[in-house]
Amino acid sequence: MSAPVEGTTAATAAPAATAAGGVGAVAGPGRRFRGASVVIAPVVFGIAVLVVWQLVVTVGGLPAFLLPAPTAIAAQIGAQLPVILETAAVTGGNALVGLVLGFVLGVLLAILAAGVRVVSDLLTPVVLAASAIPIVALAPVFTTMFGSTTEIPRRLVVMVVVVVPVYVSTARGLRQVRPVHDELMVALAATRRQYTRFVRLPGAIPYVMTGLRLAAPAAVIAAIVAEYFGGLQNGLGSRISSAAANTAYARAWAFVAASIVLGLLFFLAGLLAERLVTRNRPGGGS
Amino acid sequence: MSTEATAETNGTHGTQAVELQGVDKSFGSVRALSGVDLTVGAGEFVSLIGPSGCGKSTLLRVVADLEEPTTGTVAVTGLTARQARLAQRYGIAFQQAGLLDWRTVAENVELPLQVHGVGKAERRRRAVELLELVGLAEFAGSRPAELSGGMQQRVAIARALAPSPRLLLMDEPFGALDEMTRERMQAELLRIAGETGAAVLFVTHSIPEAVVLSDRVVVMSPRPGRITEIVSGRRPPVAGDDLVPDAVEDVRETGAFFEAVTAVREALRKGAATEGHAG
What we know:
The structure holds 2 protein chains of 2 kinds.
Chain A: H1 8-11, H2 23-26, H3 36-60, H4 70-79, H5 81-115, H6 117-131, H7 135-146, H8 152-175, H9 179-187, H10 192-227, H11 236-245, H12 249-277
Helix pairs in contact in A: 4-12, 5-6, 5-8, 5-10, 5-12, 6-8, 7-8, 7-10, 8-10, 10-12, 11-12
Chain B: H1 3-10, E1 18-27, E2 30-40, E3 45-49, H2 56-63, E4 71-76, E5 79-80, H3 81-86, E6 90-93, H4 105-115, H5 120-133, H6 149-161, E7 167-171, H7 179-196, E8 199-204, H8 207-213, E9 216-221, E10 226-232, H9 243-252, H10 255-275
Parallel strand pairs in B: 3-8, 3-9, 6-7, 7-8
Antiparallel strand pairs in B: 1-2, 1-4, 4-5, 9-10
């Protein structure tokens, strides 16, 4: 679940105004939907996979602990639907709170780092090191720190995971100032603060949104995995681990399926937010 | 050379828009400018022309206080270059329009005023006025990306004019435009310069452009960048708004225009010859 950190080296580079070659890698709210075939192809493929899966399990006689049949999982989803919705709401809530906290923190830290050189030098390695923190290591520690009757530990885990891509992406966006804008603001005798407010921040917004898009699905993963390590037993993750422990494999898979749906929802929401915010723009740093 | 004589005959008693004395500028061991003396009178249109590397852009940037001269004095509207920049005494336009994509056209024009803390209502009023001046009033709410290159450059000029500067600095502003748009923009610029009474210091590669726009064409040569000659331009007298495009057309067909073009061309050749090889 390592957060998708792009261009770790770029984050330590000098805040130069050079238009970077890495623009395409981060930004670019490109055309992701090219009509019906884009939707139909993966749906057909998905159905084919399910059919083959069903055949392998029933005809091949695979034991349920190895792989339950899709029909068995579907039956469990039907039977557990109220519980699934309830637990998904808890996990989704944790992911959302952590995402918002991490997003705000990541953006604020990047702005701070962009404004003050010392802060950047101090912060960048720390944030990048945070990307290497396995939440496996953090979750039990947070649970002990804050107690097992609160949602705080999971939200903190999510926050740590979210801060990194948001910080890296925002910091990069803040460095992508076109030389002509740089010159213009000097010629206009703009203060540093005005320069940040009128040019750097608005210019960085596509990058900020890219950071959010990358962080959103990671937030769900973090929220679920954090539940595997104790604390309250009210989310999808804890249901998956307890069902598996009780040899209720089909039920475990039902909650896995719900986790996938939740992750997709966050991913799509992030994508939508990015496209809405950047729709008026000709793109990244051109 | 003829620098002083021409400046004297200009006969403006008010403060000169630009006064450069003995300006040198070196980048490491490269002498970009050497011994430049130049005066631009109030309301005067002066073009800087010369091959690449002759320092014409550097000279403009020195006036704009984007570069500091190594030696020599720079006065802009009677202030030091730095004071003039801080007081927004000049407006500047670059080869790239450099509009902020996320702002509307009107908000782009307002930018210099916003930087100087002018209130919102006053800013908007001024932006509307300026967009009318450059003929883009109906695009006030558009995004820069919706505009053509020529239109974007007109917005950039409107932006440069926002603080009502007495001096307009332009670094090849029409360099990226096609020939037809370019000629239309030249007429536009002459009309705007006439209406606002602003002096213009204009960097260009194009000899006809320099001649048709300018009161004086300053010819420069490279290594080190210096002024080799100053030729009288053929800036048409400004009458009512609509007359300007025709007046510009007329100028382009006169013998005097061709004479001036030839004079500039020869001055450029001479500059290249004394340097040993063409730039």
